[in-house]
Amino acid sequence: MPKYARFALVASFVGLWIDSFLSHSVQAVLGFALIFTFGILHGANDLQLIRHTGPSFPTRDRGRMWVYYVAFVGATAVLFYLMPRVALVLFIMSSGYHFGEQHVSAHLGRAVGKGIRTVFFTLYGLLVLFLVFYFHKEEVQQIVLGITHDLVPLVFFGWGLALVGSGVALMGIALGMRDAVFRSVWVRELFYLGVFAILFKVSGLIWGFALYFILWHSIPSLRDQLRFLYGRTGVGEWKQYLKQALPYWGMALAGLLTSYLLLQDQLVFEPLFFSFLAAITFPHVWVILRMSEGRGPESLSP
Fold first, then answer.
1. What is the DSSP string of 172-237?
2. Measured between alpha carbons, how far apart are the two ends of the chain, in Å?
3. How many alpha carbons lie under 13 Å from residue 108 in its C-beta half-sphere?
4. Continuous H helices in the chain
5. 8 Å CB contact between 273 and 83
6. What pLDDT, in 10s, does the model give residues 156-201?
């Protein structure tokens, strides 16, 4: 088991231990605090990543690139307002792909075709999400109701978990038969999924999701970004990353706060929060995809 994975595993169970001492409201506050810091921070340097995924951008084009990026985020927010059902489905699918890519991309050799990789990444990430949905189905039902005004039947979450779980199992067996690199780590990935299931079942919705999102996604993604930008993950590189990301991180938080103050009479906080998260997720998924395509799987952290 990689060194960081051992740390994340221990930290996850420490988080479960802390969970037993906290009320659900305190868990939610701490969970949102983690997501607002490390969670949003891991996507706050996207413009810097874009500049490193292709030819250098002239200085005069950086402002234009910032406008395009903000417009992309704004268009996503508008989509959630005009077509919330479509936007929510796209958010879940893209988040599934993004989570799966972070977990599995280092273990699939280039012999596996791009289409198959995309499907497997998406199914793996959707399995993680449906574990969250299934163990907190009543709360998730209310969040979906707040976003789309549709009451999703609770049975949907069980059937969804069974469907994507079957897809992951079947594709995992098939990929293990044809890819020696993947076969050597597949049992470990199944173990991680078991850890996630325990994490989501025992914890409250926001606290459990925050532990997963920070420990198993955001920090590993930050480490990958540091390697991509600077070639290493030392203290100096972390400081440089924070310096570059801080203005964008601050603007993201200001945007969420402004939206909440303007819409607090119409929306509850959790639907607004997840809609906001979706708005900044779509461009981030594209940026990380560009970053991943620019390097081999051996350079990705497991």
1. HHHHHHH-HHHHHHHHHHHHHHHHHHHHHHHS-HHHHHHHIIIIIIIHHHHHHHHHHHHSS--HHH
2. 9
3. 23
4. 3-19, 24-34, 40-41, 46-52, 59-82, 84-104, 114-135, 137-148, 155-178, 180-202, 205-211, 219-230, 235-263, 269-293
5. no
6. 999 999 999 999 999 988 888 887 778 778 888 889 999 999 999 9
Q: What is the pTM of this model?
A: 0.83
Is there a contact between 186 and 8 (Cβ–Cβ < 8 Å)? no
Residue pair 107/302 in contact (Cβ under 8 Å)? The answer is yes
- The amino acid at 259: S
**Long-range contacts of range 236-245, CB-CB < 8 Å, 24 or more positions apart?**
241/45, 242/41, 244/45, 244/48, 245/41, 245/44, 245/45, 245/48
